[in-house]
Amino acid sequence: QVQVVESGGGLVQAGGSLRLSCAASGKTFSVRTIGWYRQGSGKERELVATIDSGGSTNYADSVKGRFTISRDNAQNTVYLQMNSLKPEDTAVYYCNAQFRLGVLGEFDSWGKGTQVTVSS
User: Fold this and answer.
1) Residue 80's closest CA among 60, 112, 50?
2) Is residue 27 predicted with pLDDT exceeding 90?
3) How far is CA 41 from CA 44, 92, 107, in A?
4) φ, ψ dihedrals at 91, nearest 5°
5) Please, what is the end-to-end C-alpha distance for the chain in angstroms?
6) Could you tell me the CA-to-CA distances from 112 to 4, 38, 71, 84 in Å, in that order?
7) Which helix (DSSP H) or strand (DSSP E) does residue 92 occupy?
8) Which residues partner with 87 through β-bridges?
9) For all residues of the chain together, what is the average pLDDT?
10) Is 3 helix (H, G, I), strand (E, B) or coil?
11) pLDDT (mean) for 8-16
């Protein structure tokens, strides 16, 4: 019903910037919250940032002040602007869309991820 595809990952030096994109398709009007998650090698997946349908945002403490999540409703796209990147930001970044299908209830959809590598 809802699909998301991430893009924008790559290799950058510490202190550099990247902008990730999460493009949603399908019944995008049903999306309530978009979240960016990441999973480093050998580590658990963790939440990075979220934005809900009202525009409210949340950030992990580790990225506050460096990352910004935003949305472009006209393009059904959510962005994650990542500045002042650190090697510890290296991970596969995943987009997650939480959506509701009326009486069927809440669902979510995961993208396949995009690799972000930050070199020292």
Assistant:
1) 50
2) no
3) 8, 8, 27
4) 180, 170
5) 41
6) 8, 11, 20, 25
7) strand 91-100
8) none
9) 95
10) strand
11) 98
CA 17 to chain centroid, in Å, comes to: 15
For β-strands 114-119 and 10-13, DSSP reports them as parallel
DSSP string, 3-69: EEEEE--EEEETT--EEEEEEEEESGGGEEEEEEEEE-TTS--EEEEEEETT--EEE-TTTTTTEEE
Element (H, E) at 114: strand 114-119
Q: What is the dihedral of CA 82, 84, 86, 88, to 10 degrees?
A: -40
CB 14 within 8 A of CB 66: no
Residue whose pair of structure tokens reads 């924008």 in the numeric block: 8
Instruction: Categorize the per-residue pLDDT at 31 as very low, low, confident or very high, splitting at 50, 70 and 90.
Output: confident
